[in-house]
Specification:
Elements: E1 7-11, E2 21-39, E3 45-50, E4 55-59, E5 62-66, E6 69-71, E7 78-93, H1 95-102, H2 122-125, H3 127-133, H4 137-152, H5 162-173, H6 180-187, H7 191-202, H8 206-224, H9 229-236, H10 241-251, H11 256-265
Antiparallel strand pairs: 1-2, 2-7, 3-6, 3-7, 4-5, 4-7
Amino acid sequence: MPDVVPEYAPARPPAVLAGHVRRYLGFREFSAAPVRRRQAPVGSCALVVFFGTRMSMRGAFGALECGSFVAGMGDSAVLTEFTGEQSGLQIDLTPLGLYTLLGHSTESLTGRVPALDELGDRALASMPERLAALPGWPARIAHVNRLLAGRMLDDRARHPDPEVRHAWSRLCATAGAVRVDDLAAETGWSRRHLLTRFRDQVGLAPKTTGRVLRFERASGLVVAGTSSLADIAATCGYSDQPHLVREFRALAGVTPTAFRSEWGLTPRLPEDARL
């Protein structure tokens, strides 16, 4: 097993950014041997700002080596690997927070990890250099708070539709256990219009988003190891245990048992950070 001596600095965003930002995680790791992690789909997006380091990634988008990047919503696993030092700051955003930050559709980011300097946004492209130059995690996180609040709370910011916010909130509250027809009825939109607007602002269709949120709940229970797979399947609304196993294979690329085994053998970041 690789020998990793980690330094982590988790932090919560201020209340004014609730609904946009989930958390921050400053990190510095070192390993002489490769550290590989399986990143299964979750109901959030991420800005990952590296301080001069890079990582290898492999997923539906192919294989690449990248520095600082943004990860949109997705419905398949990504395998990451690094050797040596890895340091930077991860910003976990809700998909609607990412939409507000960028000010345009995030559907083109679905299942992709474009570099920050590919987004056409000077403030985001300059983040690696600016944050690396600041003296410690509190100063870096304070800088990010100011940047995000200045963008997301500005009267000129492009905010998600209230109907999309409602649909997203309902899906999160039920871990995906709400029908798209019911969401459409609650918003007063047609199913087709809801699908179009939701996908534009969240990145995935409502049904696929629900699938990811249900899987996220199930994967947490699998990792906890306190319930049988049959009980987890019933709790999360799968038809039976084989259905649960099929979903793990489809979304994580492995069975629930293998997923939990990998989790126990791999050096993890606090609160399952997506790195």
